[in-house]
Amino acid sequence: MFYSMSCGKCRILETVVHTALEDLKMDVEVEKLLNPEQAMERGAMSQPAMWIDEKLVVQGRVPLVSEMKEMILKARDGQA
């Protein structure tokens, strides 16, 4: 996840991701990408941004927990 401490949406996205993972009973490491240049190299043009298995799945907005769970499940099942 592309993250900045000064980004309110980033902090909310972090909560959404962890809530979705807890709901799904998945123990997965969530990495924070703090370098904007690296985020841009990976295709992100706005904050917050979230990748699952190296695929950019959302940027510039905070999805609902239900949307995040769907993204996680699709990636797990190879549909993302």
Q: Domains counted in the coordinates: how many?
A: 1
Number of strands: 2
Summarize the helix and strand pattern as letters.
HHEEH
- Main β-sheet description: 2 strands, antiparallel
CATH architecture type: 3-Layer(aba) Sandwich
Unreliable stretches, pLDDT < 50, 5 or more residues? Answer: none
Estimated helix fraction: 40-55%
Order the strands across the largest sheet as they lie in space: 1-2
Q: Tell me the overall shape.
A: globular
CATH topology: Glutaredoxin
Cα separation of the termini? 16 Å
SSE diagram, text form:
Elements: H1 8-23, H2 36-41, E1 49-52, E2 55-59, H3 65-76
Helix pairs in contact: 1-3
Q: Quick gist of this model?
A:
The chain has 3 helices and 2 strands.
